[in-house]
Amino acid sequence: MADGTTDTIVSTETRDIPVHPKKKEAPKTLAEKISDKIYWILRCAVVINIIALFFPSFNPARLSGMINKNLSLFSCGISYKSIVANFGRAFRQGWVQESTFHALNVCAMIVIVAAVLAAAGGCMSLGNRKLKRTGAFVTIAAGILELGAVFQFKNLYNQIADQAISANKLDRVLPMFPYNNYIFMGLGIALVVCSAVNLFLVPAAEKGEHYDMEPKFRLFLMMLPIIALAFVFSYLPLYGWRYAFFNYNAGEDLTMDKFVGFKWFTSLFQNSATRNDIVNVLKNTLAMSGLGIATSWVPMVFAVFLSEIKNNRFRRLVQTFTTIPNFISWVIVYAIALAIFSTDGFINTMINSVSGSDQLVTTNYLMSSGHMWLKMLAWGIWKGTGWSAIIYIAAISGIDQGLYEAATVDGAGRFAKMWYITIPELIPTFCVLLLMSIANILSNGMEQYMVFSNAMNWEKIQVLDLYVYNLGIGKGLIPLSTVIGMVKSIVSVILLFAANGVSKLIRGESIV
């Protein structure tokens, strides 16, 4: 242009539209490079801060021995009742004041809010200069909030101790000095100091600069909630594997004098009763999983035929009605089965009405153990086929329509298109799902088998997950149930990589 600017002109039929190129950020200075190192310290402090919220051993809000030792700081912040569950008499007798524990609940809540703000500031540190500086202010605010709450924990401890001494009930209230305060105090100081240093090192944003972030960091932040959920529900429970090495009973302390090493592992093979139970449970588990794998093609075939329905309204209606059962609880499914197959259910009522015989049919089909594996398979197919077909329907919509047009020109009919185009295009998706099914061959779930189990079909319906539940919750054998769960997880991982190796050998490509 005449004025020497770099604006580009894009010609259209209506007018010339100036397109302004994206303004690049200036190269990083030495101070910014140092700041990047400090940001790693800040992010580590943020992660540790969040994790510490969920571990009871790091809870600075446990200011009395009467507070449940299994409470985490997060639980103290979201549930006041969990803090004062054992303080009913203490409040009535005036040993301690209830207002003190309301303040304790508020302080725990403030620490949670501070952790959320610190996480937001840590995420903003992945952006450009303007976003980093804003994130630094957010993190400083989080650190100040956390430090204020932490100092208040010590004051609340002094109040509880003074109240207990005044009531001469020090031995009952058991005030506990919050040594974990120092952990959160250090984290709060790290948040404030690191953020303040970064504010000093990171140059101010140029005038007109907008908040921005690189696409790779945006994608990472989109994945972050999923990573957090996976950590909380998949990896954090692995901390419970330690029970497999102790003689532990529910409600007791887990101390080293109860350490027994691999005792519970060897009992799986040395105890004949346990060994027989495991063999029977594995037989049921592998049989039902095998039937599920053998019929895993059903959702794919259903999706293929569903996609061939030309009437859109009817196709959506069929898909809706076949998907709804997936959202029905197994308890409701059993209630439906009870209404149909029980002694006075629909089938017996219909037979008695049609036959007109004086001898009433009172068969309870749910109490029979015959063909139990096939019955469970049938209920599973009915409940899950429509839902499982969704991924195949999505895959079908991605098939190149030019293939079908070329097949039509060549004179191929609908079944020929399905056999030579649709199904081959769905095989990669089927292989991935088959691989996941093989990896989960020991994980049948528990709810279905639990609601359908009774005294008559118990031996045929008890699968591994239900067996572990009954051992741990029903019989209180927590160490033994933990051992079985550990072995199951390890075997599942081995099966996953073995199936992946077979897939790579046969298809020439890896799934995992």
Percentage of residues assigned to helices: 55-70%
The major beta sheet can be summarized as:
2 strands, antiparallel
- Mean pLDDT comes to 87
What topology, given as strand order, has the largest sheet?
1-2
Number of DSSP helical runs: 22
The shape, in one word, is: globular
Q: How far is the first residue's CA from the last residue's CA?
A: 53 Å
- Number of separate strands: 2
Q: What fold name goes in the CATH topology slot of the largest domain?
A: MetI-like fold
Q: Briefly, what CATH class of the largest domain? A: Mainly Alpha
Which strand-content bin applies to the residues?
Answer: under 5%
Question: From the 3D coordinates, which CATH architecture of the largest domain would you assign?
Answer: Orthogonal Bundle
Rg is 32 Å
Class of secondary structure makeup: mainly alpha
What is the string of SSEs from the N terminus onward? Answer: EEHHHHHHHHHHHHHHHHHHHHHH
The CATH homologous superfamily of the largest domain corresponds to MetI-like
Low-confidence stretches: 1-20
Concise summary:
The chain has 512 residues and is mostly helical.
Provide structural commentary.
There is one protein chain. By secondary structure, the chain is an all-alpha fold. The protein has two domains: 30-213, no CATH class; 262-507, MetI-like (MetI-like fold, Orthogonal Bundle), CATH 1.10.3720.10. The chain has 22 helices and two strands. A two-stranded antiparallel sheet has the order 1-2. A hairpin with a 4-residue loop joins strand 1 (8-11) and strand 2. Helix 6 (129-166) packs antiparallel against helix 8, helix 11 crosses helix 16 and helix 16 packs across helix 18. The longest helix is centred in the first third of the chain and has 38 residues, at 129-166. The radius of gyration is 32 Å and the shape is globular. 24% of the residues are buried. Mean pLDDT is 87; it is low at 1-20.
